[in-house]
Amino acid sequence: MKSLKKYYLTVSFLLIIYLGIFMTIITEDEKVSILENRTLANAPFFTRESLLSGEYFKGWETYLTDHIYSRDYWIEKYIFLNMSILNKSDINKIVMAKEGNLLPFIPFNTNHDLKFYSEKINTMANNIGELDKYIREYGGHFLFVGIPEQASYLRSKYPDYYRNNEEYLDNNETTMFEALKENKIDYINMAEKYRQDVREDYYFKTDHHYTFRGAYKAYTEIIQNLIDKVRIDNVRLPLAEDEIDFITLSNPISGSRNRKLAYLYPTDEKIEIGYPIEKISYEKFTNGQLDPDFYQINKDNDGRPTYNVFMGGDHAETVIKTNRKDLPNLLIFGDSFTNAMEPLLYYHFNETRILDLRHYKDKSLYDYIKEHKPDIVLMIRDDLNYGTLEGNGKFD
Asked: I want to staple 157 with a disulfide (CB 3.0 to 4.6 A). Which of 33, 97, 224, 271 is the partner?
């Protein structure tokens, strides 16, 4: 009787395994994992070299792990087990920090090579110096704006035993702005500005970006800087808070940090947006197509919006024309931290062009500037990417 039970147990176990393999094979592959925000592995190509090196079989192991049947379902159950039953404080590389903040987990044995990062940041600062010189030669003005990423701004919210990243973050900030100062580059260090205010509503708790309030603060600093230092004619002062119609979206945000927890972390934080109360006429084009909306409020996850509300997410090129020839033209380049500021910045310029060089491939930044000769060039960079020399850190 015992042997029969063992037999049925073994057969059942093997059936489950083979059924899982069969369903994995016949199910169409997903290209990306929404929960993990990454591209999933492709099936490996067979070559004699990959077979002999063992890479071929490693490739299959990675592929099957990435495409196992109902993978997201099992990830969700794993997260639920660790969060609700085992009460772990870090799950799937996310730390459940103080006051409801979700922050990235930094391995305890991380040993940052500060010299390496400093060298890359200094290279970036020198490249910016060359770009600044090129822009000044035709009479334009360059401004660098450094934005702290959420994990940097909220570093004090980590439990004490997780705080092992501060030396790296401090080094990034100090090295970047000392190098820019040495190169005589006009800059705004928003980490410094935010520290003066000590406001927690500048950043989302469950997403790696700042909120509209944080973006608004950066916007006011940018416009005021251009008025004070560049003395550009006819540009009005930054919009005051009572000149903006602030609107809070009804459903909670699906934040990028919470996505890694399968959106199981309870939160009621919401996205705020804003429109200038006094309207102006404009035409807006996204990647060459007429696209009048500054906010895309389609819900992405069970009726919950994401940071992509701002400008509909990242795009290669956006052009906003207000046809006020007496005002200067602006070029902005940067990643998603530009998005929440764009619905305000355009208000002050004749033409605003926005590039995300991770996606824009038609020509180099230098060639784009040569073609359009903007009066103001604005580079917006988060502090975790000060030394990144690709994407929005590659100009030629």
From this structure: 97
